[in-house]
């Protein structure tokens, strides 16, 4: 029977950071393994003789792919926030540009009107 990597061989849930192995190499959550060995004195997978004194605590880190994915997702959120901020800045700049264009157009009209009035 094949299990997913990072899965407890007893309850089939994702392994926590409190996991262990037996000398045969099969891995499970520490709590599951100790409960199993209190009832059965064999490995839950290969049935090799085992006892609680055979349990070896593992100091596992999250899989590299998951860690990398989390970093990439965090970076994506950060970049999305930066993009939204830049879009807002662009909208503000566009409004200011429109205002300056309108002001410039008004000044040109005033000059033309003055020139016209002065020519009379």
Can you give keywords for this protein?
2 helices, 2 domains, 120 residues, 3-stranded antiparallel beta sheet, mainly alpha, 8% strand, rod-shaped, Zinc finger domain containing protein
Characterization of this structure:
Helices cover 55% and strands 8% of the residues. It is mainly α. The chain has a three-stranded antiparallel sheet with strand order 2-1-3. A hairpin with a 5-residue loop joins strand 1 (19-21) and strand 2. It comes from Elysia marginata. One of its GO terms (cellular component) is nucleus.
User: What does the oligomeric state look like here?
Assistant: single chain
N- to C-terminal separation?
A: 102 Å
Number of domains: 2
Helix proportion: 55-70%
Please state the second-level CATH architecture of the largest domain.
2-Layer Sandwich
Compute the CA-based radius of gyration: 35 Å
Sheet with most strands:
3 strands, antiparallel
**SSE arrangement, N to C:** EEHEH
Helices and strands, with pairings:
Blueprint: E1 19-21, E2 27-29, H1 30-39, E3 56-58, H2 64-119
Antiparallel strand pairs: 1-2, 1-3
In short:
This protein has helices spanning 30-39, 64-119; strands at 19-21, 27-29, 56-58.
